[in-house]
Write a structure and sequence with these properties.
The protein is α/β, with parallel strands linked by helices. The protein is built from 7 helices and 7 strands; from the N terminus they run βαβαβααβαβαββα. The chain has a domain at 5-105 and 139-151 and 176-190: Rossmann fold, CATH 3.40.50.
């Protein structure tokens, strides 16, 4: 029998991607979610953690840089660290320690519309202002720079002229909820 794979989720907001991932693996006894980490004490993802019986921890920027959190994560020995709408920058010493084990999802087709400050509604607003005919989402490995890690996969959707940023966001979120769990399953099956 194969060893159970553990996935630690990091999220700052409502947690819809985290929930999509948890639900996707609900009947899979070989995937474990030992921890959810958030930097926002009011994040909806913490309610999801409570409801799903997953331990959670709230951290601040300094704690993300600390050895205590690093040691806690190392003691779990995750197969994958999944950023699902986590807004703090992952420290470089993490990306050096967990090479190709930290993944992120971005609500645009990188390398366009990426980088510091480009998240959520800001991305969709920029896409709309650039009059793009399509957008999508990118799943990528995390490295030392915002949104610059190697791309794992992208999915696209068309933008109608009349689509506003909220409608664009809804289209992209549908792609995220479908492809993020399946990409994680693919990555976990690779080793």
């Amino acid at each position: 029998m194969s060893k159970k794979k553990s996935v630690i989720l990091f999220a700052s907001g409502g947690g819809s991607n985290a929930l999509a991932i948890i639900n996707y693996f609900k009947d899979n006894k070989n995937i474990d979610f030992p921890l959810i980490v958030s930097n926002n004490p009011k994040a909806g993802v913490l309610e999801i953690a409570k409801k799903e019986g997953i331990p959670s921890v709230v951290i601040n920027k300094e704690e993300l840089q600390s050895k205590e959190l690093l040691n806690q994560i190392q003691s779990i020995a995750p197969d994958l660290i999944v950023l699902a709408g986590f807004l703090l920058k992952i420290p470089e010493f993490w990306t050096e320690l967990w090479v190709n084990q930290i993944v992120n999802i971005h609500p645009a087709l990188l390398p366009e519309f990426g980088g510091k400050g480009m998240y959520g509604k800001y991305v969709h607003q920029a896409v709309k202002e650039a009059r793009k005919k399509e957008t999508g989402m990118t799943i990528h490995y995390v490295n030392a720079n915002y949104d610059e890690g190697n791309i794992i996969m992208q999915a696209r959707c068309l933008i109608e002229d009349e689509d506003n940023p909220e409608q664009i966001a809804a289209k992209v979120l549908r792609l995220e909820h479908y492809f993020y769990p399946r990409t994680i399953a693919f990555l976990l099956a690779m080793d």
